[in-house]
Amino acid sequence: MLTTNSKWPELTDVEFAILPVGSIEQHGWHLPLSTDSLIANGLATKLAGKFNKSYLLPLFPFTSSFEHSGFPGSVSLKVSTIAAVIEDILDSLEFSNIKKCVIVNGHQGNHFLRNVVQELNRFGPRVLLTPSKSAWDIAYQEAGISTTISKDMHAGEGETSLIMHLNPETINPSGVKDVDSPSRPLFEVLGMKRYTDTGAIGFPSRATEEKGVALLNILVKECEKVIMEFVENE
């Protein structure tokens, strides 16, 4: 793989770029604000290592996290801003004859990215958004996560397990508290504060590093298959 530490003459035969997209938002009492960014970067780095002709871009840390408004430290950009930044990045890559890009999304609240990607691909395959909801569902099941991603949607067993593997030094063990909040009918209206006191929704007490290793490896496997098909598709 190539990175921004590479020299420009090395970037003459790149098949696609990889852009990790994270967020800066609260993740309960026990996980860092950078949780989604750490996951996106960790997954993107492992994926880039699978492809010799990939170009790993630096993490884009800001996305849409307005559901976390009211929690200190969370930062959001408007959807229109994010879409414009992504399009600018793609245009810049095309000047280097890099015509395809894989977005590795670490913030599952970025639902709008699916529509952005559809629009960008209207004239042909240009952008792939990973991991898919299906990839996450498979990873949760095969890694032995005790519940669904819907019930464990934020700073729960899955994300805590991943951070235990990727950046364990960022965890505050004394802040771990399970929050069972499966019904969230006004989530888009009232945000996280309506449904959780800690900022987490899920079961972080069930997390283990072994589950985090399994989650990451399964996500890599699922994403790698789709990326290969994307790269081969003209």
Note down, in words, how this protein is organized.
- Keywords: Hydrolase, Metal-binding, Zinc.
- This is Creatininase.
- Its cofactor is Zn(2+).
- This protein has helices at about 35-50, 80-95, 110-120, 135-140, 155-165, 185-190, 210-230; strands spanning about 1-5, 15-20, 55, 100-105, 125-130.
- The chain is an alpha/beta fold and about 230 residues long.
- It has a single domain (about 1-230), classed as Creatininase (Rossmann fold).
- A five-stranded parallel beta sheet has the order 1-3-2-4-5, with helices on both faces.
- The protein is globular.
Overall geometry comes to globular
User: Which structural class should the secondary elements be placed in?
Assistant: alpha/beta
* Strand arrangement in the largest pleated sheet: 1-3-2-4-5
Instruction: Tell me how many strands there are.
Output: 5
The mean pLDDT is 96
Helical region count?
7
Strand content: 5-15%
**Succession of helices and strands:** EEHEHEHEHHHH
Radius of gyration: 18 Å
Question: How many structural domains?
Answer: 1
Report how far the terminal alpha carbons are from each other: 22 Å
Q: By CATH's scheme, which homologous superfamily applies?
A: Creatininase
For the sheet with most strands, the description reads: 5 strands, parallel
**Any idea what the CATH architecture is?**
3-Layer(aba) Sandwich
CATH-defined topology: Rossmann fold
**Helical residue percent band:** 25-40%
Q: What kind of assembly state do the chains in view correspond to?
A: single chain
Provide the CATH top-level class.
Alpha Beta
Low-confidence regions: none
Protein name: Creatininase
Organism: Desulfofarcimen acetoxidans (strain ATCC 49208 / DSM 771 / KCTC 5769 / VKM B-1644 / 5575)
Cofactor: Zn(2+)
Family: Belongs to the creatininase superfamily.
